Amino acid sequence: MTKTFKLAGGAPFPTFEIAKVGGGKIQIGGAREKWSLVIVYRGKHCGRCKNYLNKLEQTYANWQDAGFDVACISADPIEKVNDDIEKFGWTFDIGYDLQEAEMRKMGVYVSDPLSSQETDRRFAEPGVFCIRPEGTTQIIAISNGPAARPDLDELLDGMIFTIENDRPVRGDV
């Protein structure tokens, strides 16, 4: 079993580019003008991921209004991502073909498929990251399975409070 590196709260989030649906690249990590919400999802084979991203679509405008850039990323190939976008109508940025090296740099758990019906490649288990404008982690929520993810309304409410009150990173002792 391969151990996965875990990011610490307040640590710089790894920077990399990932291919973006619709063309171009999404820059993940690094300094920017806004806060970032990065959601790592398992892929087309995961019904819980679809529910989670559907909830994100419902709250997407609220995240934007709060000053967040939003990106969702997975190891799925473009064809699988496009199928889901066509079916669900997601409008946020989605990156595809996430590589295992980047998964490990972010500290998410990595799984092998249980069968070829699930998927044909290793994939990342869920991760949700709130990243400060200077590129450091504020919130890190990772899971080794599909059933544990932060509620997006609660997370947004907490992040608005954090930003408005200039709260520090927690869990750093």
From TrEMBL:
The keyword Hydrolase does not apply. Keywords: Oxidoreductase, Peroxidase. It holds the Pfam family AhpC-TSA. The keyword Cell membrane does not apply. It comes from the Bacteria. PROSITE patterns: THIOREDOXIN_2. One of its GO terms (molecular function) is peroxidase activity. InterPro entries: AhpC/TSA, Thioredoxin-like_sf, Thioredoxin_domain. Residues 7-161 form the Thioredoxin domain. This is Thioredoxin peroxidase. It comes from Paramylibacter kogurei. The lineage of its organism: Bacteria, Pseudomonadati, Pseudomonadota, Alphaproteobacteria, Rhodobacterales.
